[in-house]
Automatic annotation (TrEMBL):
Similarity field: Belongs to the LysR transcriptional regulatory family.
GO molecular function: DNA-binding transcription factor activity; sequence-specific DNA binding
Pfam families noted in UniProt: HTH_1, LysR_substrate
Protein name: HTH-type transcriptional activator AmpR
HTH lysR-type domain mapped to chain residues: 20-70
Gene3D superfamilies to which the protein is assigned, alphabetical: Periplasmic binding protein-like II (3.40.190.10), Winged helix-like DNA-binding domain superfamily/Winged helix DNA-binding domain (1.10.10.10)
């Protein structure tokens, strides 16, 4: 008879790698599984290699469009799929009963400040007795916690899983304060912006999951790319840039959907009619471990508010 103590000890050493294996089998791609687990693809690949080393067998064949199970991989999946899925489901149900009165939203600083915070009273009314915990960071994926129920993040369309819903497509215009516009007449084209290079407010957010559109790329999209664009005023947060723009300190790039309230209140104005659209957008998705009706209700409320 197998010693249960030794069996649990062995399983404990491989549990994370086995969960990674099951997710890759479920989703068919390392990139999709890595996104669900909130880890990098190289980290996921290492977990699969660790599992293959532990069992002494190759489990996947890798190719350009994804991965396929080897015969040994299919055997392992056949042996573990039902019991592991049942164990994961039962544990999730047990955990949900303990934490069902709180929904945790992981979101970047910009979306939290300019979209979510102004609508927090309506969200609290919608959520009823459920506590709302907002975890704001520069990169929601990197800083997501095991308690995260909903993630709102910026990504390219090609990197988004099927379970995500697009909230805002990236549409970016040059913006400034009404007073700045009055004090600086004659900025009537992207090329004219180049002559005001020292007045452009730049965003630098190294290490984020998806890079924000910068001035060089925005101008290039409008055929006004300089050889070297001066970057005299640089911030590491979008909130600081918008505050500086509202105070008349320069010209910023404005993400429609985030700055709409400031435009409606005339704290900011669109400087040029030119808008750059990209394949980047804000997306919302439920965490793989969160399936409560309250979590889905809040996700649907955010989507409805965006589309209203």
């Amino acid at each position: 008879m197998t010693d249960p103590v030794n069996s649990y000890t062995t399983l404990a050493k491989c549990s994370a790698d086995l969960c990674a294996f099951m997710l890759v089998c479920e989703l068919g791609k390392l990139s999709a599984a890595a996104q669900v687990m909130n880890i990098s693809q190289p980290s996921l690949s290492q977990r699969i290699k660790n599992l293959e080393s532990t069992v002494g067998r190759q489990l996947f064949v890798r190719h350009s469009s994804g991965v396929d199970l080897t015969p040994q991989g299919k055997l392992l999946l056949q042996l573990l799929e039902d019991p592991l899925k049942q164990a994961a489901t039962r544990f999730q149900e047990f955990q949900t009963k303990q934490t069902s009165d709180r929904v945790t939203i992981s979101v970047d600083h910009a979306f939290a400040s300019f979209w979510l915070l102004p609508r927090l009273p309506q969200l609290r009314e919608k959520s009823g007795s459920t506590d709302i915990c907002i975890v704001s960071s520069q990169d929601p994926f990197v800083n997501a916690t095991p308690e995260t129920d909903i993630t709102i993040f910026m990504a390219q369309a090609k990197d988004v899983s099927a379970g995500s819903t697009c909230l805002l497509q990236e549409q970016v215009s040059a913006i400034c304060s009404p007073q700045f516009l009055a004090d600086n007449p004659g900025i009537d084209s992207p090329q004219a912006l180049l002559e005001r290079g020292s007045q452009l407010l730049h965003l630098n957010t190294p290490g984020t999951h998806t890079a924000w559109l910068d001035w060089a790329k925005w101008l290039a999209a409008l055929n006004a790319s300089p050889e070297q664009l001066p970057a005299e005023i640089v911030f590491n947060s979008y909130e600081m840039i918008i505050k500086a723009a509202c105070q008349g300190q320069g010209i910023a790039l404005g993400w429609h959907g985030l700055i709409d309230d400031l435009l409606a209140e005339a704290e900011l104005v669109v400087l040029l009619p030119d808008t750059v659209n990209t394949d980047v957008g804000y997306y919302i998705e439920l965490a793989g471990t969160s399936k409560s009706s309250k979590t889905a209700l809040i996700r649907d409320w955010v989507v409805d508010q965006i589309n209203t």
